[in-house]
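Quality-control log, excerpt.
Job 1 of 2 completed; input and output follow.
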Amino acid sequence: MYTKQTKIVCTIAHNRCEPDFIKSLFDAGMNVARLNTAHIEMEDAAYIVQQLRAVSNRIGILIDTKGPEVRIRDLETPLEVTAGQTLHVSADQQPTFGFCVNYDAFVNEVPIGSDLLIDDGEIHLTVQDKKDDQLICQVTNSGEIKNRKSVNVPGVNLQMPSLTDKDARFIEWATENDIEFIAHSFVRNRDDVMAIQSILDRRKSPIKIIAKIENQEGIENLESILDCAHGVMVARGDLGIEVPAEEVPNIQKMMIRTATRKVKPVITATQMLHSMIDNPRPTRAEVSDVANAIYDGTDALMLSGETAYGKYAVEAVQTMTNIAQKVEAEKEASSVTLPVIQQSADLMPRNYISKSAVEISARIGAKVIITSTRSGDTAQICASYRCRTPIVAYSASHRTVRELSLTYGVYAQCIDVPPECAELVNKTVNLLIDEGVLTPDDIVCYIGGGQVSARHTNLLQIDTVKTLLN
């Protein structure tokens, strides 16, 4: 249980979700399961959820919506193109030589001089002119253009609706199926987040929104996006197409830093161990990539094709776990560099106590920080300081436990919470003794309500195990 602090998100496919397979991923280090709605229908998703819940009630479930993206449509056969050729792009009818896209205003909104990147940049076109409601483009490199492939326009803010009809249906489905997280693609601004939140509010759903940042507009609006989203994902695939690839490492560091400062979980994603789809061992560059994301302070790392259809899915998760364990044992804690999070006056005692608990635990060598929590907020605040001391969060809510599956350094369990604080401390310490985590001489830091009924954290207690139990 206490093997690593960085969380791992694994993409699960509907045709590869047997309980034995899921348990193997869970045992190797998976904390959250991702369902990519671009490739599944609702009945597929329901089946995956059923299989996940059969394995463990501690696995968080994240559904990934498609979001506003431009794709090629109605191209019956692949189009072979050669560098220097001219082709036409339309949103209305199929050109003689070219293709149609799925966004009606595409031709109007894309200016002359823009770059079009097809299929994650495999084909590059430049817009030379506009004529008869078509873009006149020149092909920069030879290749093959296929139906349903993505079309990116770096530096151009297209005014597409934030939600597709399929997205809205899946979000409504999620509210009825006990899902913890919705990761929404191509979030550009606060309004994109609120479009999802309005559906959740209307259905009185507690689902948390993770904003996937995949373009320049999203980067520029990161602060305001984080003000209303639960967390963010550094979605490096499209991000590396929408902005120059050499800028992505610094953007990743900035996003992780900003999310951590705001006490919001952050996931780093895309091609982290991509070669392990076909090979039993990662490249050295991939190992360094995973390690650097952990050094940057990410809450979670995400695997996509590696676990959805890769030949070495369990090995990929185990590899990521091994890297995390090694890096976490050597990297410095960041607690001294982060200020106390500023919130309303009634929450500030909790926030000061949380930082104090982390700093004191580090200085005196406490074995664990124990917290009791209804919402998970105290555990998240402690985790934002990225301490080495494990944070063990106990809650009466299975949902809170699963929501904390995305938060760095937090090991959450669901228990029946005793009515008195002393009973709660006694119970949680005994549970950790039974698990072999604590011995009588270990120092423990407890942070929680002085009374179980307290509205906010107001108690910090530090002592040895044997003293707490006497």
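Job 2 of 2 completed; input and output follow.
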Amino acid sequence: MTKRAALYLRQSKADDEGIDRQEERTRSLAAARGWTVAATFTDNDISASKPRGAATAWGRMLAMADRLDVVVAVDLDRIARSTRDLNTLIDHGLALVTVDGEIDLASADGELRASVLASVARFEVRRKSERQVRANSHRAAAGHWVGGRRPFGFEADGVTVRPAEADAVRQGFRDILTGIPLAAVARSWNEQGFVTGQQRQARSGHAGEPSPWTAQSVRLVLTNPRYVGLVRYRGEIMSTPAKWPAIVDDATYQGVQAILSDPSRRKPGRRPQALLTGLAVCGVAGCEATVHGGANTAQRLRTYRCRGSLGHISRKADPIDEFVEAVIVARLARPDARQLLAAPSTVDTTALHIEAVAIRERLAALAADFADGLLSRAQMLAGTERANARLAELDVALADAGKVDKLGELIAADDVREVWDGYSTDRRREIIRELARVVVHPVGRGTRTFRPESVVIDWLS
């Protein structure tokens, strides 16, 4: 019976032997042996030293192993870089033949020879990886980018700023400081046409397309110290400043870190769609429940209703929203509006940053002195504890400085209404939350006109 052969082709680097050339050589070998080529499997830009899942050509080949007898590859490195891969082929009952020399996995001698060759290949992969890790560690310590996916806000070299994306990053930091949720930042970036550097997976139905922004991917950007001009490598922040420019200042960065690390932000539930959902409270005596948005489907009207009782309030939402927004805008347009803000910061953030850099360098020096035997373990631990305690104090001070004057942009505007109208609902909600407590009272039956006195706005400061 003629053997059924599968051609396995793989190319992981541009300078590898091309796929077309591999197919030509493996097909010639199959023809010379009189085998029927049942299928061809190609993994492009896939490393044999990394796991290959069911969605790869390797996975599809194993899935149809019961319809194959032998796998043909150019050489062993193309198909297996570990004894695990060889055992996988054996477990699936597949023989392996390479153009550069036959390996018979059905015999003990052939299995031993293949295992030795695979072990050597694995050794070479690990040695290369260790050299690469050491080289990357030295580069990171010197403030260089060690490569990878293009960082958002920068060109492919990881150093040159991409202006439009950098502006989006700055706005994202500002949004978080003013209370805008991560999901709203993601929507804004998506609406502006920005995409992540990651491709969508096959199960999404859009395989290969750029992934849109999500709250989680935005969080990864806004918690990355690269945007404040620092290098993070394998979880450690280097003491040497990065070779690329910072996109935001230290106070802004630390302020956002403090906000995003707050456990109270991780609350389940749907994002409010209406302006006053979860903000305004019911005005019925003794009821402190918030209102939520609803709809009168018969009249196609948005409404606000009390969460505590259906019989308390059910009112048209649009007139309430318009009134509250008008009062807020009028208050922010007054000359004394700045009194609503936190006191202006007198913190010298530049000095704090210089001190923080010096402490990080001191920590690196302590570690080096301990490794060289110049310090005892007790001395090293004592010095590290003091340095880390001061570094924590500096981080808190920088975070507080980043939270000051959240409404500065709005208050400084010549036309407050124009700026307000340009804000998203999420941002308007956070400004209202910052400034006032809104109480919505019920109105009598038959009331058809909006009564301003039925919506009370209590200023918080």
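Post-run check on job 2. The CA atoms of residues 135 and 146 lie 9 Å apart.
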